[in-house]
């Protein structure tokens, strides 16, 4: 039975930079990431740069937007082992059951590190890329049995998973070898001071990669091998910084000319610069074997606001503290948009693959553009309608994004779908929403997602639509 309401809207999807799909990566947010707990990895040194060990939770003061907040859990990691903490190395039971990003550590046990390596093969000249890959291969002996590595490559259009999480040194070595033959594309040089489309694509690919690998426990770091990314202003880095801070990744840019330092500073990492790097993995390993792990429960307004983080050692102004500088209180709506856009890169669909989408006959809408009727059928069994004023209602959100074979991606506008019925829906009832897409006259891959703000459910569909 068709629920007796039909809505109409128009979506205009104009092409903008993005990236295409090659080998599917792990499902983007297979489980919703609960970020009600914020992790802060803290390194403390004296003025000469020597690490300060042996501090406990009472030695630290944690401030958010200048106001002290209580530390919910605390662990000192010394030479890669948890040696001191609150509550025997584990966060309070309430946090364990409610937050998937809380580290579960046992005292005097190894604390593994997850090393996510992102290779921007488009921007990096081949000689430098091979030098870095040689260095990484030579330094694999620095990994410990509890460490894991995953490798993702971006060639300017497609994202490839070269290696999923593994502790096998032989598999890691093989994946690094596999990254070598790929030829870097010829690059078009953008005008000074102007962001290139390729930079935006690379940033989007790196951002979606971080979120794709969010659901992993333990210390998380990302080695970002890239060359010069031309951005109009430093705020262009915000999506990647916010995503890394949101899911707990520390960024370590590996660059020949010293760019991208902001990525490291904002997430608590270190920029590894130089055309002939003497160390790559070694520098990161040194940085992640000795640190303090603090966690706190922030107020959750879900207003997409950025909040400053400051960590101090009480009564020791002579000590230097290194940590991430902020966290993003991301709204669920913004997260759903990122899920949709990430799915365009990596394949698959967010949430339940239960929408039905049909397209009508395209009509010309100008030079190389067509208007395409689109019908989205929503099963009401999978959303919630509330009785209010004698009516059954909800306001769902529809997001549609498309990408072509060149990696040009649309924006992801949000349309509200008001549903209003005179009676409760029966099992099997559905609602049909009609809209139009304005597309270029070429084949596109699309993702359509309906979000129910009452329950957090996501219904989606994907496919291709031709000219």
What is shown here, in short?
This protein is of the alpha+beta class. The chain contains 8 helices and 29 strands.
Sketch the major β-sheet: 7 strands, mixed
Number of helices: 8
Terminal Cα separation, in Å?
A: 32 Å
Report the strand count.
29
**pLDDT < 50 runs, ≥5 residues:** 1-34, 88-100, 184-195
Radius of gyration (Å): 24 Å
Shape: globular
Helicity range? 10-25%
SS class? alpha+beta
For the residues shown, what is the average pLDDT? 80
The order of strands across the largest sheet is 4-12-11-10-13-14-15
Structural write-up:
The protein is an alpha+beta fold and 467 residues long. 18% of the residues lie in helices and 37% in strands. The protein is built from eight helices and 29 strands. The strands form six sheets. The chain has a seven-stranded mixed β-sheet, sandwiched between helices. Strands 1, 2, 20, 21, 22 and 27 form a six-stranded mixed β-sheet that branches. Helix 2 packs antiparallel against helix 3 (169-178), helix 4 runs parallel beside helix 5 and helix 4 (197-212) packs across helix 8 (332-346).
